[in-house]
Amino acid sequence: MALIVATEAVGAVFLRQFLLADDWRLIVTLLAIFAAALVAFERRPNLEGVIASAFRTQSGFAILLGVALVALFPFALEKNTYALHLCVVAQLYAALALALNFQLGSANIPNFATGASYGIGAYASALLALNFDVSFWIALPAAAIVATAFGFLLGIPSMRTRESYLALVTIAFGVVINQLLNTLDFTGGPNGLVGIPAPQIFGHSFASPLVVLGYELPPQANFYYLSAMLVFVAILFAERLHNSRVGLAWNALRADELAARCQGINTTWYKVLAFAVDAFLAGFAGTIYAFYVGFISPENFTFLVSVTIMTMVIAGGMDNILGVVVGAVLLTLLPEKLRAFSDYRILFFGVTVIGFLLIRPQGIFPKRLRQYEA
Amino acid sequence: MASPILEGERLTMRFGGLVAMAEVSFELARGEILGIIGPNGAGKSTLFNIISGLYVPSSGEVRLEGQRLNGVPAHTIVGRGIARTFQSSRLFGDLSVLDNVIVGRHTQTHCGVFDAIFRRGRANGELKRAAAHSEHLLRTVSHNLFEQRHRPAAELPQADRRRLEIARALASEPKVLLLDEPSSGMDDADTDALMDDIRSVCAETPDLSLMIVEHDMRLVAALPHRVMVLDYGQKLADGPFEEVRRIPRVQEAYLGRRGAASHAEG
Prior knowledge:
The complex is a heterodimer of chains A (374) and B (266). Chain A is mainly alpha-helical and 374 residues long. Chain A contains 15 helices and 6 strands. The interface between A and B is large, with 33 and 45 residues.
């Protein structure tokens, strides 16, 4: 139990320091500490095993503590709105990366269209809100359903192809969606959609500061908690599906498609299913993003966004929920924190990611075998 | 003889101009073990691919308990009761040994996405039962394999990989089991152990019918009740091994060309 408290506390403190760090020397030091921890994990698999088994045997406590830390985290950020904003974006990306993980991680389907599903979710909910005065809470599931429908639509032609060709189909889908958003009138063309109203709950607008027991948090905190809930739901989905017959079927598909078919797995159906689940979660993330920034345009949902999400899954660790979340947070924060290097920012970003992958070739937290308690 | 569980009627398979199989008919009785021999490229694997639904025959018909199987997708055929292994073992290498067998129970389990997320108890219960059944199955096939159930399948030695494939195929509770060169890559001791394992599986499930493609003549002489010889996609002979091996055309086509009768290449 002490081990769990220590691990989670170290993680939270590290994240806080990294978010608030301005000086490049401090940022580099923190990254070096992170790299050192990865080296330690790689050299001493036992260390990782001990921590992992502690979390497994006392998972209830670990989850409670984790939720508490996430809930209290905004209070530790000294009302820094920029840090809170980064947290919101990182959590949205975490949800997107978890969505893609169903495909890329579980079933090895290279889908380059997660950014498009994200965009479809954002536009669907924004259009509902702007044209029909639909409230956020109704737009949220509605947009997810629209995105899922598009996910099915993409999934069906994709089934006729595989591997590199499948990747091409999804790239094409992403480009087509982006072009449509750019040219159609009702999506506002390149100007996008402006003035999406902030969500309200029980008369409290998400645009106003959040006051908890007399302590005032900036308005971003509203969305922080909202996106935290989305990540929680995404993790719940991911964990339950992974440890189910569906997750096993996806893994079988990943390992050997022909052998999977010969175990009675309808591979076409399971692939389409992965597309749909991915689009469903991405649609949720898109809605929250649209209502958070209040302004969306096609350039928020380009091919590059899909590639970023894919990098998060690969660098974090395919088919490992914790790895994917850590990858998403790290890759969202890195380019922001490396602003100190101004022109060389992207170079340093690339070098850092490659460095982490050299230390941990299977991702920060690689996939594990399932455990069954007798 | 009672009506056969599986029968093939004038099965022909063409790939463009190449005829991989020409008018092959066969019957398999309940509980019978049918050996299939023939030189490389004789059409043995083609026959298995047709039966398991990976190929749709150009003409002819496969029937399981009188029901036509042509055009039925491979994943449905497993559910109907035909399971198979592969010549080059095709395990799910990054899953544990136990998970490989649990995947094999796919047709015997039913929980989907909705159950997994919202009806956790139901999905977990089903998976737990599948895990328990799979452990039992592993123990029946090979105790050694059972001991290694939490290792990744890719780490298993060759002989155990073969056994695991058989266990995985049995997990779907098939009526007919197709084994594609189960002893390939095994030495004599491993092959003997494999034959014992197959015998014990047959003793456990007397109604199970087997079709075994094999090169190892020791296994072919010992296990099958009947042997079918294929050459150039055609059926040369069909009968007990002792009779089949004396047919001159068979010796010429297979045994003669391959040299000694005791050990064809693996």
